[in-house]
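Good morning,

Attaching, inline, the backbone tokens for the sequence recovery test we're adding to the shared suite. The designed sequence is right after.
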């Protein structure tokens, strides 16, 4: 009888524990589906908050002068702690461009990041008025190579932090599949950044928001 009692109590406890674990899992899932998803807070070196690698790019690997360089900056940042991404560019040559890429998942391609449950892409941006402020720069959302690339020009930078918000439907309207995203990019193009064809910006807290 005692053994039976112990077995029944044990079973009840186990079942209860399983329920608790299931509840915890649900809570985590809910938090994950919260109103904000952090893609990158740049509070540490790569990877970002969605396990994606990131770095600066220059179209020609042998280019030495007209390049973009990235660094984590723990002095200038949005918020009271952590760090931001500082991007220094030089496109002081006709037609030059360079910038910064960031994956939306651990793979180079095929991440199929689903942003369709969110309403906007937002990030904080600040110019470096000593180095030079771009008139405008381009932000891109991409799927895998060969699929449409959606873009948005960002301007009116100052030496203070400012929040930029772009409705995701603006990107979707350009043909990019919001359920299969792979990469976020910042591009400095000579014509767009002019007259500051050399300069620097800080970017922080790249988010998806509902
Ligand atoms: Ca940060």
């Amino acid at each position: 009888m005692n053994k039976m009692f112990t077995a029944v109590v044990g079973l009840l406890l186990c079942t209860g524990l399983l329920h608790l674990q299931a509840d915890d899992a649900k809570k985590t899932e809910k938090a994950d589906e919260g109103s904000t998803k952090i893609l990158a807070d740049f509070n540490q070196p790569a990877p970002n908050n969605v396990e994606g690698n990131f770095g600066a790019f220059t179209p020609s690997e042998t280019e030495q002068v007209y390049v973009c360089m990235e660094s984590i900056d723990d002095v200038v940042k949005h918020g009271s702690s952590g760090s931001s991404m500082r991007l220094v560019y030089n496109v002081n040559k006709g037609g030059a461009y360079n910038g910064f890429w960031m994956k939306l998942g651990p793979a180079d391609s095929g991440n199929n990041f689903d942003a369709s449950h969110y309403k906007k892409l937002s990030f904080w941006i600040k110019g470096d008025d000593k180095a030079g402020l771009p008139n405008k720069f381009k932000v891109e959302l991409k799927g895998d190579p060969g699929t449409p690339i959606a873009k948005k020009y960002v301007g009116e930078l100052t030496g203070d932090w400012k929040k930029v918000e772009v409705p995701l439907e603006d990107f979707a309207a350009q043909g990019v599949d919001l359920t299969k995203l792979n990469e976020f990019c910042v591009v400095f193009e000579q014509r767009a950044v002019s007259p500051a064809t050399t300069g620097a910006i800080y970017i922080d807290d790249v988010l998806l928001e509902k």
